[in-house]
Amino acid sequence: MxxxxxxxxxxxxxxxxxxxxxxxxxxxxxxxxxxxxLESRLGRRLQELEIEDYDQYISFLTMGPYKDDEFQxxxxxxxxxxxxxxxxxPQLDVFEKQVLPRIIEARAATKRLRLWSAACSSGxxxxxxxxxxxxxxxxxxxxxxxxxxxxxxxxxxLTSAMEGRYTDYSMRTTSPMVKSRxxxxxxxxxxxxPQVKQMVHFEVHNLKDRLAAKRFGKWDVIFCRNVMIYFDDxxxxxxxxxxxxxxxxxxxxxxxxxxxxxxxxxxxxxxPTPQGFCYAKQGCKxxxxxxx
Length: 292
Hints:
Oligomer: single chain
Number of strands: 10
Strand content: 15-25%
């Protein structure tokens, strides 16, 4: 295929087959009016592979020896990994100043704290959580067992996350004080402080896989922000039910500011924390009154 070739045209039937494959594997839903998005993001991939049309690509994606690798490549093309350190600071203030201190107080006997950053992309969110835990616990940190897990369906972004090496773009919402305390600048890059880096570990995880989520155990806090906008109602319900099952009884779920659990039949209640976008299990009175 020459460099001057136009992108292959995706028929309605090909779109239906592709979006079903994507949904079955990841839960991401492309509605009818988003055909052009899928076509525009995959057109260049077909050129890279020198594949003539989408029927050939579907065969390559579903039957070829490299189908699992290609799904990862396709997923990286069709998703947008838009993130930064300390993204949506008002919400993170709720976590650090209201939720985290009360969770730490509630875990004083066990001195164990478990946080899950689901769909964490290139790692900025779980590292941000680690920095806030470090600030909150201070010298007490050495007496605590802190486990922070970052998961994503994309191996590529997790490889980047594990390096802990970021550009100015990832740092655009990071204060100079945090930069000086938790990063070391290396030319155009910012390296996460080793003490923070060792607080976080990463694993590939598909949010459709409820069994794998159970193997992770129970969590005190779960963050899953700006991901469920890509799901349909059935997938959102399944994912949120998994979070409910995997949270401790007094655990807290944080979601994106453009997301809501209002239409779902999962027993969560939104906490009375402006800008928090956070939820507790129904009946958990600890969180239904605002912290002092």
